[in-house]
Amino acid sequence: MLPGETLASRCLTQVPKCSDCGESLNLKVLRSAAGYYVGTFCNCGPYSRESGYYDSRESAQTALDSGQFGRV
């Protein structure tokens, strides 16, 4: 992962907002066909994937809660 490639890797002082719909982009556990991941979602749909994929919602939630996630 390159520095600044994801929202979580940037030094942000406030929660970013979607440039199209204006909704706040809070990190949460999301699901896709590939599995569970930490990312952001807004009115426009999935906005960013901040982590790799996890086999279970619980594993992804543990990673989010601990702050120990990232893309590989």
Fraction in beta strands: 25-35%
Which residues sit in consecutive blocks of at least 5 with pLDDT less than 50? none
Structural class: alpha+beta
Largest sheet, in brief, is:
3 strands, antiparallel
Mean pLDDT: 87
Instruction: Name the helicity range.
Output: 10-25%
The number of E-state strands comes to 3
Biggest sheet strand line-up: 1-2-3
In the residues, how many domains can be counted?
Answer: 1
Tell me the number of helical segments per DSSP (H or I, 4 or more residues long): 1
SSE order: EEEH
Supply Rg: 12 Å
Distance between the termini: 6 Å
Can you tell me the overall shape?
Answer: globular
What does this structure look like?
- The chain has 72 residues and is of the alpha+beta class.
- The chain has one domain (1-11, 24-72).
- 14% of the residues lie in helices and 25% in strands.
- It contains one helix and three strands.
- The protein has one helix spanning 57-66; strands at residues 28-32, 35-42, 45-49.
- The mean pLDDT is 87.
